[in-house]
């Protein structure tokens, strides 16, 4: 190492490499740091963040690059830096510390541990000096070190109590009450009580997309005809797309809004948000018929293909919020920027100014810059600038094109180019579904290419590793995956099977589920542990059932097992039920935190809609049948393909294929609800009638 590098210089993670030239004597998590802490009897200072995290960058600039603060960190602690995207198991365990201390979790996460990894104090961002009633980081360092030195007994007692509580909180929750057919009604009643009926979304500020909760409302609106639930989803999708959380030039969603109106975002773009929102906007289009939602989906995919796709065909993790040391600088606009971008195209200037609300005052942190949002519809904009609507639309498109070209010349935010299995799987499944729903076969092809890249580099004997870096042909074995990696990739395989009819995807989903059950399931108490049985020994092995920014790995694991039980082998279903049934009452009481669990429970209680397509899958009629199915929003749906010329296609989905043959060379379809199947139909109109019968 050079004099200006610490141990992180040897790491692969872009986040860790960002800190490789700090004067802090950083260690990656591992035996070397833990052994030194024990040898020197020093507490560990554990700092967890991720590459696109704005406040992580702020704390680095203010404290970790400060020579005096770094010197005290090095003197008093063994300092460990962790990328939460590499090690979500560590993040999951130690986030609980902040919450148990009565504070909100988040990043950067700052935790002080005994040498045996037990936490005794934690927080998130600390300023470099006392500010806004928050102690400065230097004062925290001195107080924690003094307590560890002079009040060791108290520290160890607190560490023991916190560790015991983490173990308790990390267990499978069991509520009281029955799970019945009214679970969606009960859950949605609670969700609607938190819904912002003016701006859309949940709560006030900051405001996150909360896609799993919107999924639940869309389920109720579709399955039970609840108009308020439907209207709420439509409002949220409309307001998000018109707000500043949506990138109006390139497409794609930023992480969250700092205000209640979706206007000023936290600017990082995360692969998982865009994957979840792609599926939600496609579902919203199918359920609600709003063409803008399909347009949003197409623009979102265009962004992902243009800016987030690796040479292997898989997708990068994140894009940063900051550029040139400032959050949002890449994305915001002043009137002078607009004039420079569009040149002498006066109509484009006026339409963009009015439509996007670009003013001298701006709307972004008193900088005079404006976060773009759809302040006025194109029709109202046309009236204000005295143009015909068609001319205004054309002028807006010219402005967008020129503004994007100008923005591309700005210094770009950095990108975390890890290829994460779980987040890629979310997008692969969404692309497969969206490609079928919007008749975009190239999207399905892109999903297959991305899946092949993940499978080749990360899947071994049914076990999914966590991530690979660009240029790697295979991820190292020690990058063991976690529950979300297994459950998401298995689910993506089934989504690809439904879109393509290729039975190898079912076989792979089965292999992943078998390995997941072997290495993650609790055989005594039921449920799935987040970390595998051969992972690092941490202070607790938790079963986290709550959704975070992504669906709970436990709920996704349950859904994967249920889906496999429904189509290929009924033994899988029992494992799904052992996970999801005990948490039912808790999920109904807290649907904002357990939205995915509510959706899986509804699948279990309500049953599925199963469509069996029998015949040549490449034939015109089979494809017409598939279009009829995927055009509709059919919650809790299975689609299986049986080619009479290939017995393995029926064997792959034998639960649903049994007893369903073709009429000679004819292609037919069956629709089954709760294992009661229709007679075979051989024309699209008859299939559509069965699908719409409900």
TrEMBL record:
One Pfam family, short name: Thioredox_DsbH
Source organism, top-level taxon: Bacteria
Organism: Polyangium sorediatum
Occurrences of domain Spermatogenesis-associated protein 20-like TRX (ranges): 5-166
InterPro entries assigned to the protein according to its UniProt record, in alphabetical order: 6-hairpin_glycosidase_sf, Ssp411, Ssp411-like_TRX, Thioredoxin-like_sf
Entry protein name: Thioredoxin domain-containing protein
